Structures are given as structure tokens and as C-alpha cells.
């Protein structure tokens, strides 16, 4: 049973990474310290055990095969604290699910960080 579940999970990760690599020319991600993060946030094994490492390595080799790029953003880049519209930076608590800025931006916090990561990735690609 365990082997079957492991294989299903692996197939899922292959499928998802292939889909991303086929549809996009580059992938930008934060270079997260998943082990440290799961310890600090007391997530236990769930974060390190969910196949994130496997997923990123699948992504990496599949992108490479197609001459595409995986861009890793420094883990200190303030993707969560930065307003994706005006660029101002502020503290935001983990409990705040929405990023609200004085410029009028009101956006889901993860979507806001994703936009910042994308922008930073494009900047790195252009300067490379
Ligand atoms: Zn703003």
C-alpha cells in the first residue's frame, strides 16, 4: 500500500512539473529553507515530507532539458512584506491573510507575494 501511495504521489509530481515546464519559459521560486521553516512554525514533518524537494528537482531537470530556466529568489527577499503595486515594504502578521497598502492595494497575501516573486525573477532574468 505504502509503495502504491508513494508511486501515485511521484506520478502526480511528474505530471504537475511537466505541465508547468510545457506552459512556461521560466519558473521563479523562493529558495526556501523548508526544514528550518517546518521546525520554526512547528509544522512537524508535513512540510518536509510533502515532496517539495522532489517536486523542485523534477522541475529543475525538466526545465533544463528544454533549455528553460529555474530562477531562485533569495530567501531574504521580502516577498510577503512588499506591496506588489507601489513597492512599499511593511510588516505583515501571519494571521493577516490580505495585504492592504496605503496605495489602495487590497490583495490575498500569497497572491501579492507571488507577484513580487515573479517581478524579482523577471528582473534577475533581464540582468543575467
Ligand atoms: Zn502599495
Notes on the protein architecture:
- The protein contains 4 helices and 4 strands, in the order αβααβββα.
- α1 packs across α3.
- The radius of gyration is 17 Å and the shape is globular.
- It folds into 2 domains: 74 residues, no CATH class; 52 residues, no CATH class.
- It is α+β, with helices and mostly antiparallel strands and 128 residues long.
- The strands form 2 sheets. A two-stranded parallel ribbon has the order 1-2.
- The mean pLDDT is 89.
- The chain binds zinc ion.
- Zinc ion (ZN) binds next to loops.
Major β-sheet strand ordering: 1-2
Oligomer: single chain
Q: What share of residues are in beta strands?
A: 5-15%
SSE order, one letter for each helix or strand: HEHHEEEH
Write down the overall geometry.
Answer: globular
Largest sheet: 2 strands, parallel
Rg, alpha carbons = 17 Å
CA-CA gap between termini: 47 Å
- The helix-and-strand class reads alpha+beta
Helix amount:
40-55%
What is the number of E strands?
4
Please report the number of helical segments: 4
Stretches where pLDDT is under 50 for at least 5 consecutive residues are none
Q: Which molecules other than protein and nucleic acid are bound?
A: zinc ion
Count of folded domains: 2
Overall pLDDT, averaged?
Answer: 89
